Amino acid sequence: MTPAKFVEKYGDAAQWIEEQWEIPALVTLSQAALESGWGTKAPGYNFFGYTAPNNYPGQRQLLKTIEYHTTPNIKYPVIIKITNLGGKYQYIVRRYFRCYSNAVNSFEDYARLLSTDKYNDAFDYIDDPARFFTVIFNAGYATSPSYYELVISIMQTIKKYI
C-alpha cells in the first residue's frame, strides 16, 4: 500500500487515538506503517507486531519474525536460527502474536501499552511527535537496532499526507 493510501485508510483511527489517548497520530501511523509494511503485513490486524504471551485472553497466531538479544539463551516456541552479530544475537523464530477483529482494536491496544508507566515521560511531548517517539524508543519499545531511524524516516514521509 502506498503511504498516501495508508494514511487515507488508517488516518482517522490514528486521529481518534490522538484525541482519546493523547498519542500523536503521526507516531501511531509511523510505527504502524513500519511494523506492518504499510499495512501489507498485518495478519490478524496486528499492526504493531504485539506478541501474545501464554496468558493472553484473545486469539493468537504463530508467525515468523526476527528478534535481537544480547544472549543466545532466549526461549521461543520455535527457533529457526540464531546468528551472533558481535555483541548481539539475531533470532529468526516463530512466536505467538495477537489477533484483532479490526485495525481500530489494534490501535487501541497500542494506545493502552503506551499509556503504561514505562512510557509516561513521552506524554510531556504530545505536541512534538519526534520527541514523543524518541522517549518511547529510549524506554525500550523495540529491539531492532535500526528501528529508531526507520520510524523517524517514515514520519517524514507521512507528514506529507496528514
Residues in helices, as a percent range: 40-55%
CATH topology-level fold name: Lysozyme
What is the rounded distance between the termini? 16 Å
Mean pLDDT: 94
User: Uncertain runs with pLDDT below 50, 5 residues or more?
Assistant: none
| Structure class | alpha+beta
- How would you describe the shape? globular
Biggest sheet architecture? 3 strands, antiparallel
Number of strand elements: 3
- Rg computed from alpha carbons, rounded to a whole number of angstroms: 16 Å
| Number of helical stretches of at least 4 residues | 5
**Portion in beta strands:** 15-25%
Please state how the strands of the largest beta sheet are arranged side by side.
Answer: 1-3-2
**Second-tier CATH architecture:** Orthogonal Bundle
| CATH domain class name | Mainly Alpha
Order of helices and strands: HHEEEHHH
How many structural domains does the protein architecture include? 1
Overview of this structure, please?
The protein has helices at 3-21, 25-36, 103-114, 129-138, 147-158; strands at residues 60-69, 78-84, 89-98. With 162 residues, it is α+β, with helices and mostly antiparallel strands. A three-stranded antiparallel sheet has the order 1-3-2, with no helix packed on it. The radius of gyration is 16 Å and the shape is globular. The mean pLDDT is 94.
Quick overview of this protein structure:
By secondary structure, the protein is α+β, with helices and mostly antiparallel strands. 40% of the residues lie in helices and 17% in strands. It has a single domain (3-161), classed as Lysozyme.
